[in-house]
Amino acid sequence: MGRQKRTHIKRKTLMSIEPKNLPDQEIISLFLNRLKTFYENPENLHASIKISVSDYLEHVYFLHFYDKLIIEKGSTTKTLHAQITLPLFIIYQIIDINYQFDWNDLASTNGIMYSGDINCLKFFQNLCLRPQPQTVARFHRAERLHARNKFQDIKKIEYIDKPTQQQILEAIKTGKPVVLKGFEKPIKRKKWSIRRLKNFYGNILVAHPQKSKEETLSIFIENLENTKTLGHTKLPIEIWADLGPICFDRDEFIKPQLSIGVANADTTHSSLSRISLAKFYMQMIGSKKIELYSANQSHLLYPLQSYNEQQDCWFKPENPDYEIYPESRNATKISVILNQGETLLLPAGWFSKSYSVDDLNITVSYCWRYG
Length: 371
Known about the structure:
The protein is an alpha+beta fold.
């Protein structure tokens, strides 16, 4: 494979449209055409998926992933790898400039049905995402800050014991990651275990985005243990009393996420990615390794052009392909082991990738709205 060719899109095209008063068929056409605008396929995925709109089942579309995105209507002779049925209101949300669409939020994706190859489905889901203008601006601001302060040369992450709220605010402002420890409030969290979590909250329903359904927390954990895969879900409100944020008011945070990792799993916690807000990673059970890349190295990490608050990267540090992503050879990283009871504060713009260290570990992460 040759060197990855980057497509440069003018910033104004990042903005979606406001689909008020448009005919339904025009909305569908705009949706399909927009998929082509941000299409990129550096790893040469060859696959075909079927798209149906539940409001107009007589209209069927086929997306063929090659060097370019090919769209057929009506029928195809190609082998299908996945199928997706979307309600029209979901398509409205995806192309609406005023709406931040999130595939991991079951409340937002109610009515979507899909089956087939997970990688093909994920590829399609990424194509549907668009950043808000403020998200793009935050990333650009972080890149300038990191370049000015040469954050790519940082060798070690600072630890702050029993930090004050003022120290936390200063860390967010400076843009440097720090590990926070010694909090008085979450002392009881050090006693958490998988068994205790199941005993206290095992019957609570949690969202399973990959299955587009809800299941009990006990089943969610057991499935991850048995299949040795990663898992993400929104933190149920019932657990906030014990696993709530360590600083600021609760309503200052976007819905927190519960991440469960298994050592030597088929996949790690997530792809290399960055968030446009300050993020707190609170390690509840076990330990995890987190690798960090400064924001001003974005040109070396091949971030996707389609994203929302979180921007994933094509480059995979755990299995680097320098033939496709040659510039990544020049990227520098710092690593930290996050132990039980510790919290990593990651200011906006940092790229991160996490790996399980212990047999099973649980992390609760919070994004601060004002970071």
